[in-house]
Structures are given as C-alpha cells and as structure tokens.
Design brief:
Elements: H1 3-6, E1 16-21, E2 27-33, H2 36-41, H3 48-51, H4 54-62, E3 65-70, H5 74-88, H6 91-94, E4 103-108, E5 115-119, H7 120-124, E6 134-141, H8 144-157, H9 168-171, H10 196-199, H11 213-227, H12 231-247, H13 251-265, H14 270-280, E7 287-296, E8 299-309, E9 312-313, E10 319-322, H15 330-342, E11 352-356, H16 359-371, E12 378-383, E13 389-394, H17 396-429
Parallel strand pairs: 7-11, 11-12
Antiparallel strand pairs: 1-2, 1-3, 4-5, 4-6, 7-8, 8-9, 8-10, 12-13
Length: 430
C-alpha cells in the first residue's frame, strides 16, 4: 500500500481504531489512535523502518486496504482495540508478543470482586498457579502502561476494590453495621478501618462496610459493561437510573449517577494520549503547537497557532485569534489565546506546546494548562537581539528529542503571525 492509496481514504481527525487488511481482506494489524488521520499517515513516512519494527514495515507493504471505526474517546478506542485483537488475532499484533506476555483486566470471583491487571502467563500458563478464580477477563491489551492509565480513569468514575480487606461485619451479613435514615446509604462501620484508596474516593467503602454486596455488584456490572465496549448502552442505563432516583427523591444517588453519565460522555483521557505517544516512540505522531502574538503598538493585536507534525507544517490546522483583552501585553494575550484554544474540544490536543518568549511566557502557558486540568510539556524559544532563536527553555525531554521540529514550529508561528497582522493593518489603513 502506498501514500497515494492512503490519500483515497478519508480518515477523520478523531479518536478511533484502524485495521490494515491484505488483498484477501485478512486482518493484518489493528491499532488505536488519538487522531486516526495523523496516526495512519505516520505509517507512510520515509523513516518508517527507523520509527517502527521491521514487522510493521512488512505489514504496510502487504496491506491493500484500511478501514476504521471512529470513537468518542481514546479510552473507548483502547477497549475496542483489545476486543478486536482478541477476535481477529492479527499477525502483526500477536507475533510481537505471545498471549502470555499481554496484559489483561481481570475481575475476581469473590464476595467483593477485585479489579486487577494480570499478565497472560498468570491466567493461561499451567506452570504458574492462579491464586484466584476470575469472573470476567478482558483483553489482551498490548500496552500495559495504557491499560493502567485507562483503569485509573475508570476508577474515578466507578470506584472499586482491589487490595483492601472487606469489612468483616459486612461479610457476616452486617449485623452491627450502623444505618442512617436512608435505607440504602450506609455509614462506616466502627469496627473496620477505611483503606487509603477509600480516603481518596477510589474505593467505595468495601473495607469500612459502607457498601453492601448487592450495591457493589452494580459497580462491577458497570465496569464489566464498560470494558465489554458497551459505552452507549451503559450511558443510557445510568441515565434511566438517574431519572428514577431523582423521581423517588433519592437525590444523592441521582447526583452520583449524573456525575458518572457526564464523566462517560466527556472522558478526560489526556493521560492516555500521553501514554499512547510514549508507547510508539516515533516522532511521526507528535503534534507540536506553536503560538505567537503580533501587534503594532497595541493595535490590531492577534495571536496565531500553528501545527507541526513529523517535521511537516500542517497548514490546514493553523488558527488565528483576534485578541479581545490586553492588546499591548504579549503575556496576557498568550494566556487568552491558549484558554480559547483549549475550549475547542474538537481539535486534537498537542503533545508539546512551543511559545515565543522566555520564562514569563512558559509560565503563563503552563498555568493556563493546569487550570484546564491538562499536563502538556511547554517549551519557550528565547530570541537574541536580532530576534533569532538563541536557546530553548522548559521541558528538557521535549527539547532533547524534538528541538528541530520545535524551532520549525516557532518559525512558522512567527511567519504566520506577521503575515496575518500585515493584512489586518492594510485593511485598517484603507
């Protein structure tokens, strides 16, 4: 398959799962992506052998077609990828590892089931005795780090028990558990101590007797549905339960369900985007966004965002912002621009942000990202007296690995900002 063949496939700039097939429609490889368009395009660069394994390079050569499924989030793509790999066993996926090396999500068969990550060798190898029986097993997940990140996201939505000891009173049908005025809400049992995860809100109170076995079964049901790929069905069921709880004036339960529905709709999977990048190692998928501000004495102030990927300027992704406040303050203008850019959830998030300036610009960019709940490396391009790049400051790892692309992005942002500003000045003049 060639780059020309790829150009015939209209891939969206959205999360999802892609499938390479040979001439006989046999599945060769399955992968997930933060941006389907950018990820698949990365397989057709001149440095493919340098950034991917020989097995992947051979797979691309054999492939004759690509299909894809768009998802609402990277989390959903991660789960769908695992399900499809299990179903099709594509050689370019499974030949890299045997099933015993993959990671799986297991839910144990206990009174209060634990949700844990295990290696295939523990589940399937008779040489290694299994220390527990499992009720559900999901996977394989090719990248253990991403599975851990995904489970951390899921745990914030559906708190579960993994290592703590269930409250003895609860296991004994709870004769001494104290109940409050609500028949379905429990208070912590004085005989059982809450674990550290309970204090963080990541355990529903299995250790302290705050949740019954029946209530906990619902938590496990939700997690099982989620990892089965039934996102929409799960959302719809929780929405129905929320309406019912509200109608019956169980308002605290309704609020919890409302939060869960909202969380599933707007999954904040920035951590998955970062681990997705790290798992592949190649610069071909790194999206670098560079920002610059231009004005003349505070008039016609504008800011620009440019995108560079794999050493290539992605001009279709360039954006211009007319600065609304602080038109004579470059730092404040940069802050406004980044805040407005982050409000566009439909735009893919970058892996690196480059700003034109020194410590003040880097700090204001980092502060804007922190306020949005994001952790993206920021690099500042410090200029000399002639406005030429002198040195880079900020995230050392990004500078070391992507200095050339960061400088290209910075140069493009300056060129684009000046071009747009001059056009605005000419319009204002006439």
């Amino acid at each position: 398959m060639t780059r020309e063949d790829l150009n015939k496939v209209k891939l969206p700039d959205a999360p999802g799962v892609y499938v390479f097939r040979d001439a006989k429609k046999k599945v060769l490889y399955i992968g997930k992506a933060t941006s389907l368009r950018d990820r698949v395009r990365s397989y057709f660069t001149s440095d493919l052998l340098a950034t991917r394994s020989p097995l992947i390079a051979q797979m691309v050569e054999k492939a004759s077609s690509i299909s894809y499924t768009e998802t609402n989030s990277v989390l959903e793509a991660l789960i769908l990828e695992a399900s499809l790999i299990k179903q099709h066993q594509p050689p370019a996926n499974t030949d890299q590892k045997d099933n015993k090396s993959f990671n799986y999500l297991a839910i144990t068969k206990e009174a209060f089931p634990r949700v844990i990550i295990v290696r295939g060798r523990v589940l399937f190898d008779a040489v290694h005795p299994v220390p527990y029986t499992t009720k559900y097993v999901f996977g394989p997940f090719p990248h253990g780090g991403q599975l851990k990140e995904a489970l951390a996201i899921v745990r914030k939505i559906f708190p579960f028990h993994d290592t703590c000891t269930p409250c003895a009173a609860t296991l004994a049908e709870e004769p001494t558990v104290h109940l409050d005025e609500s028949p379905k809400k429990r208070t912590a049992n004085k005989q059982c101590r809450p674990c550290f995860n309970r204090q963080l809100g990541l355990c529903p109170g299995v250790c302290s007797g705050e949740i019954s076995q029946e209530e906990y079964k619902e938590v496990i049901r939700n997690i099982a549905e989620l990892f089965s790929g039934k996102f929409k069905g799960l959302q719809q069921r929780l929405a129905r339960e929320m309406k019912k709880a509200s109608k019956e004036e169980r308002f605290e339960e309704a609020r919890t369900l409302q939060r869960q529905v909202a969380a599933l709709t707007h999954v904040r999977d920035v951590s998955l985007i970062k681990s997705d990048l790290a798992s592949d190692g190649g610069s071909s998928r790194v999206r670098i966004e560079a920002y610059d501000v231009a004005h003349t004495g505070g008039s016609e102030t504008l800011g620009v965002m440019v995108v560079v990927q794999a050493g290539e300027a992605i001009k279709s992704a360039y954006r211009m912002f007319k600065i609304r406040t602080s038109t004579n303050d470059d730092v404040a203008s940069l802050s406004e621009m980044i805040v407005r850019r982050l409000s566009h959830r439909e735009w893919p998030l970058p892996q690196i942000i480059a700003v034109d300036g020194s410590t003040a610009q880097v700090r204001v960019a980092e502060h804007s990202l922190q306020n949005a709940g994001l952790s993206i490396p920021v690099v500042g391009v410090v200029k000399d007296a002639r406005h030429r790049p002198d040195h880079l400051i900020g995230d050392d790892a990004s500078i070391k690995q992507f200095e050339k692309d960061i400088l290209l992005a910075n140069a493009e942002s300056h060129r684009f900002a000046i071009t747009k500003h001059r056009k605005r000045m000419r319009r204002a003049l006439f």
